[in-house]
Amino acid sequence: MTELPRISAGRRRKDRIMRGLLAAATGVALVPLVLVIYYLIYKGAGQWSGQFFTSDPNGNFLGYPGGIRSAILGTIEIVALATLISVPLGIAVALYLVEYGKKSLFANVVRYFVDVMTGVPSIVFGLFIYIVLVVAHVGGNFTAWKGSVAISLLMLPIVARSAEVVLNLVPGSLREAALALGAPRWRVVTRVVLPTAASGLVTGSLLAIARGAGETAPLLFTLGTANGLTFNLSQQMNTLPTQIFSDITSPRNAIVARAWGAALTLVVLVLILNLIARAAQRRSRLA
Amino acid sequence: MEAHTPVIGGDRPALERSPLARLPDRLLKWGLFGVSAAVLILIVYFFIRLIGQSTLAFNRFGLFGFAFHNRWIPSRLIFGAAAMLFGTAVTSAIALIIGVPIAVATALYLTQLCPRRLRGPLTILVDLLAAVPSVVYGLWGVFVLIPKLKPAEQWFANTFSFIPWVGGHVAGPSVFIAGLILAIMILPIVSAISREVISTVPAEHKEAALALGATRWEMIKIAVLPYSRPGITGGAMLGLGRALGETIAVVLVIGDDPAIPHSIFGQGYSLAAVIANEFGEGSNIPLYRSALLACGLVLFVLTLFVNGFARGYVLRGERKMFDGARHRLGGVDEPEIEPAMGA
Amino acid sequence: MIRPDTQSKEPTVVSPPDSTQQGSTAREEAPDVSALGAPKPQGDGHNVVLEGLSAYYGKMHVIKDVNLTFPAGEVTAIIGPSGSGKSTVIRCINRMHEEIPGAHAAGAVKLDDLDVYDPQVDITSVRRLIGMVFQKPNPFPTMSIFDNVAAGMRLTGIRGENVRERVHKALRAVGLWGEVKNRLDQPGIGLSGGQQQRLCIARTIAVEPEVILMDEPCSALDPIATLKVEELIDELKARYTIVIVTHNMQQAARVADTTVFMLDGEVIEHAPTTELFTTPKDERTERYVTGKFG
């Protein structure tokens, strides 16, 4: 009977141990996620009520501290403005890099700086807006639109980078076919490239929006604070992240409880955006 | 013979486009160029302004004085940011030490060992860690992590008090907790980059290892990890960049004490946290404001270095591995000749 | 977010053809298989027998009930058009086939009387006994020449002087020793294509297998390198059971004692090489070897 060389028990054991460790590490990595979601629901779901979503924080020292209506609407307003700024600009930069700049020195420099921007801490963006706009009293002191601009600075490189990846996925043969038919460059871009890349661009933008909606630091010294609901972007405004941030340090239990409810709301909002983004990604006609 | 261009309808050659028709093209091109240039200018402008705003503090305390003196007393307008630098450095170090091995382990598991059906869902879950806003991590850290870990931390501090930087009273908010939360926050980035790098290991190297009779783990050890090392290191550096700049979660759990703690379970501060915490008060006092902005500048420069280095190291590291070999051949770059095909 | 540039990952190491390789000595180094020690006595080698072997990629049935014997001390070539399943067959022998997700095999592959598909059998042991050389030379890119050859050995715990000795023997056996002995610590991928492939062969024989499987080992090499590898195969066959898959019929004619012709996952004909090429029994074999298709 042919004898196979025995693999040493030590090797087999080491293999099993290491594989177990790697699997265990993955489990460990997921523990915080589970715990965060658990506590959000445990402590936050109880806060959700009609009153929670339809009343504003009222700053009272006693009694019901108010809901988060102004925070939710404020977040929506600010993020909407930030999106209006950063998404077209980000896609524009990406379009330039992919369609015109390509490997030129200028394009590479832009690419590098966009990369740099993705690594900048979000608070630094807040500082920037503070220095440039707030100190100079451009159009008021603390205003909501300045907060939007800070958030849009944060979103811009995210949109630009993902858009560049998506636009690069549009096959060159498609562009060539359109050009060969005599279409001018700008038509190729608007009628062929952009529509093909559309769902990928949407995905990238949604992920950037989800990121922007959750940011607190850029807002700290740009949009001030407010309790009341306002639709005026040139006033101070409340947002979910800033509301939560200020509620955490409150000595009142009722307000801390409100922070949990608001946090759950924010996470649900961000998760929905993420899920829509993934759904859009799956329907993409590209990779 | 003269070249003869066909003429249609008048005296314009048929193949020429009217200047008006070319306008949208040029508009598009130069418009996009302008946007891109504007982004560049914006960044440079910001850098210059930030430096400008910081000079007041730097002039008063000196560059090194500001960075390395551990005295932060706003009420007397004395600003030395050593404690903040320390806190930033230590929390980031803890984040790397805890976060990177786990992130790489999950990347290895998900790409090499995980049953196929689980791979998608588990990957999404790991990535979802990145979707949680930092203020939510802060909230959770303050009311869940700190109280729940305190007994364990105290036990650890008592049992291992002979190790320096461990031992003493555990207050609750601490440098360690901040580092732990940072580890959780950088995990998804490092894992995602590692996964991407690991999945580009060519199958032929993995096959070569398996064909030699390697176990799965041995195959990972000799074929996957060495190949992925530059990329994973780059990913870790990007995680570091993220950890350096994280503000909200840190300011909520680190204790906001401008001092260098005796142990990792003591309270501290970080560059980002001090800005977030004290900007409200400090913005009206020029020197105070300048000191805070100087912290911002230091932070900005730090992250620039780390991110730039990460990019350079990763790219260079890969190319060095394969190019170095080619140079030894004396630079002959002829393509392989195909052997003659059969009959 | 910033990503490391993983685009240009594949190390397209273009190596100069061996004919222009600076490193080769003026006196052509022949493989010195005697460095491996005395050959085993006749009849001590291992036959490989495939019994009713079938292989699947998911539901796709790609190898259909194959019965073959590969005798010890001989070279058997498997030829056939692309898609005939020749590579799949040999990958079933050392159970590399099942590394592909969704792929599985049925039937028996016997090393003498031991079925490697027996559930009691440990796959890693099988692969130590049955070595494989791949189509594209694949030395480990992060390892030196020495470490490459030693890689398999070190897995089994061999250390120190033993390793050095066996690396030396393996490199001498494949005829690389003279060319690399002064640069053993340099990267394995710094060698030319043909040298890399011989390095991979050295790596394979360093673990002292009984069977060597070769999956189109010369198709990525230039003619000079190809000849060197074929010369090596000729020297090695006395000590191993060698199975070589090739799409180059002249190569089969040069190196193989027996040739198998496969088509669509089935063995069509199996005969001594000269017989298969000059007087094929099956009409399909005849059409293939005369170049009417393939």
What secondary-structure arrangement, pairings included, does this model have?
The complex is a heterotrimer of chains A (287), B (343) and C (294).
Chain A: H1 9-44, H2 50-54, H3 69-101, H4 105-119, H5 122-134, H6 144-169, H7 172-180, H8 185-213, H9 240-248, H10 253-282
Chain B: H1 19-61, H2 63-68, E1 72-73, E2 78-79, H3 82-113, H4 116-128, H5 134-159, H6 175-198, H7 203-211, H8 216-245, H9 248-253, H10 271-282, H11 286-327
Antiparallel strand pairs in B: 1-2
Chain C: E1 48-57, E2 60-70, E3 75-79, H1 86-93, E4 103-111, E5 114-115, H2 123-129, E6 130-133, H3 145-155, H4 160-173, H5 177-180, H6 193-206, E7 211-215, H7 223-236, E8 241-245, H8 249-255, E9 258-263, E10 266-272, H9 273-278, H10 283-289
Parallel strand pairs in C: 3-8, 3-9, 6-7, 7-8
Antiparallel strand pairs in C: 1-2, 1-4, 4-5, 9-10
Class derived from helix and strand content of chain A = mainly alpha
The fraction of residues assigned to DSSP E strands of chain B is under 5%
Which spans of chain B of ≥5 residues are poorly predicted at pLDDT below 50? 321-343
How big is the Rg of chain B?
Answer: 28 Å
**SS field, number of helical segments of chain B:** 11
Total strands of chain B:
2
The total count of strands of chain A amounts to 0
Sequence of secondary-structure elements of chain A:
HHHHHHHHHH
Helicity of chain B, as a percent range: over 70%
